[in-house]
Amino acid sequence: MTYFNRHRRLRQTANLRTMVRETHLHKEDFIYPIFVVEKENVKHEVPSMPGVYHLSLDLLLEEVKEVVGLGIKSIILFGVPNDKDEVGSCAYDDNGIVQQAIRVVKSEFPELVVIADTCLCQYTSHGHCGVVENGYVQNDDSLALLTKTAVSQARAGADIIAPSNMMDGFVAAIRHGLDEAGFVDTPIMSYAVKYASAFYGPFRDAAHSTPQFGDRKTYQMDPANRLEALREAESDLAEGADFLIVKPALSYLDIIRDVKENFNAPIVAYNVSGEYSMIKAAAQNGWISEKEIVLEMLTSMKRAGVDLIITYFAKDAAAWLSENE
Question: Which residues are annotated as a binding site for Zn(2+)?
Answer without folding.
Answer: 119, 121, 129
